[in-house]
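Study this pair:
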Amino acid sequence: MAFRYFNEKTNRFEIDGGTYDICIGASCADIRLSQTITVTGTNAPVPADLSQLPSYASGNIRNVSDKEFTQLLGHAIPDGHWHGTLDINDAICQMYYAKSALARLIYKILTHMLNKSIKKGKPDLNIMFIYNMPFRAIGKMAGGMCSQYMVEGMMTAVNGHLFTGLGQIISGFFKQRKVAKKASKMH
């Protein structure tokens, strides 16, 4: 169990010392096992001036104002409005918003497969994982078969430029194939 957090002041992970109740249960209303432990901290400086963050510091998170949150965040709060273009940080399930009819069809197929497995009472965890995975993970999960350049091509296609995106995916495939051949010769 880790009690670490990243401290912006020290630019490293620190441990927040204290006494903690560890609870295990079927739910928060059904605790079946608990233990109190004491953790020794690193005594790092607190990353924020808690006197300026009264709601946050007291644990009254429902009353954290935008001003407090901006100070805690260290920059302005993003506006939160979607600008109509999916990017590599968006989840695959967000293809619902895609400008490409093909991407929306893929979304419908994945949604249907997921809902079908849920109705059976046995959700398909592989589909659920893919459904909620960000696009950037495709390149990381493909074992070297898909480069980030190809993922960017997918995003171009999803955002309504099908042929440009397909061109990028295909050229990326051949580039990636050359890289794979070169790597296999080295081994």
About this structure: The radius of gyration is 23 Å. The helical segments are 54-58, 66-73, 101-119, 125-132, 136-141, 148-158, 162-186.
